[in-house]
Amino acid sequence: MEKNNRIFKGILVMALILILAGSGSVYYFRLDAPVFFPHYYDLRVQRDDMYAENLVLKYVTNAYDTREVTAAQFVEMPEVTLYASEREEAIFSWESQEKGVPGEIHGRYSVRKVYVRNLFIPEEVQVDGKIIRNLKVQFDDGSEMTVDIGELHLYEPQKNGGESPYEHVSSSGSSDGTSLTVYRMLEELTLAEVKSPLADKLKGRLDWRIDEKFPEEAVGHVYGERSILNVSSEVLPGEDVMEAYAVFDVQPQLTFTDGEGKPFTQRFYNMRSQAENYSFSGLRAFIRERGEKR
C-alpha cells in the first residue's frame, strides 16, 4: 500500500510539473499584440471600380486569439474608405458562410490574412505616388491598434497617348518564383528610366533583370524596330528571417522615349513573394527580430 501511495504521489507531482511547464511556456511565448509582417507592394488603384488589387496583409498572433480584423484605415490617407475582413469571400459578397477562426496554426502562433478593398476615394484626394506605412486596424471585439505594415506604393495607371510603340508577346510565372515578360518594339525606342524603389529594398529576395542585365545597366539601351525586350525575375529565399517573411508584389516601371523624345511608360508584373512555409521556430525568430515581447 505504501509503495502504491508513493507511486500515486509521484504521478501527481509529475502531472503538476507538466501543468506548470505548459502554463509557463504559454506565458513565455505569448504575444501582447498581433505582429504584422513587412509588406512591400506597388499597388494599382483604379477610381472607376474603387479597387486596390492584391492587397492582402498578413500578421502573426497567439494561436488562441479568436479576434478578427473587421475594419482598416490608412493612417497617411484617412479620407480613403476601406473594407477589411479575414474572410476572403466577404470582400465581394459582404457576408461569409465560413465558420471557425481563420488562420494557420504553428505551435503557439497563428498566421492570419487580412483582405482589404477600396470602397471610396474622394475626387480631391491625390492617390498617385502616395506611400502608406501605417495602418489602423479594428477587431471584432472593438479593440484597435496602429501597426507598421512596411511600404505600400500607390499609383494610378498612366495612359500613353496614341498607339503603343511596343506590343506584348508573352508573360509567364512559375510556382518556383521565376517569371518572364516579353515585348516586341514596333519602332526604335530608348530605355530612358527604370523606377522600382521597392525592388531596391528587396535585394535579398528579388533578382530581376532587363535582357539579362541589372536594371541600372540597361538604362540608355536603344532598341531597334522589331527587337525583343525580356524582363525576367526570380524570388530568392532571403538573407535573414525579416527578408524571408517579407510579403511583396513589385511592379517596376520602365520609361522609353521615341525619336522625338516622347515618353512611354510600362509596368511589369509577376514579381511577387510565394506562399511561405511558416514554422513555429521561424515565427519565434521573426518576432524576436521585430523586437516584440514574446
Question: What is the percentage of strand-forming residues?
Answer: 35-45%
Largest sheet: 7 strands, mixed
- What is the SS-derived class? alpha+beta
Q: Tell me the helix content.
A: 10-25%
Which runs of at least 5 residues are low in confidence (pLDDT < 50)? 15-28
- Please count the helical segments: 6
In total, how many beta strands? Answer: 20
Mean of residue pLDDT values: 87
> How many domain modules?
3
Question: Assembly state here?
Answer: single chain
- N-to-C span: 46 Å
Q: How do the helices and strands follow one another from N- to C-terminus?
A: HEEEEEEHEEEEEEEHEHEEHEEEEH
Radius of gyration: 25 Å
> What best-fitting shape do the alpha-carbon axes yield?
globular
Structure notes:
- There is one protein chain.
- The chain contains 6 helices and 20 strands.
- The longest helix has 28 residues, at 2-29.
- Strands 2, 3, 5, 9, 10, 17 and 20 form a 7-stranded mixed β-sheet that branches.
- It has 294 residues and is an alpha+beta fold.
- It has helices at residues 2-29, 90-93, 197-201, 215-218, 241-244, 280-290; strands at residues 35-36, 39-46, 51-52, 56-62, 69-74, 81-85, 104-106, 109-120, 131-139, 144-155, 166-173, 178-185, 189-195, 206-210, 222-223, 228-235, 247-250, 253-257, 263-267, 271-272.
- It folds into 3 domains: 1-30; 35-157; 166-272, Sandwich (Immunoglobulin-like), CATH 2.60.40.
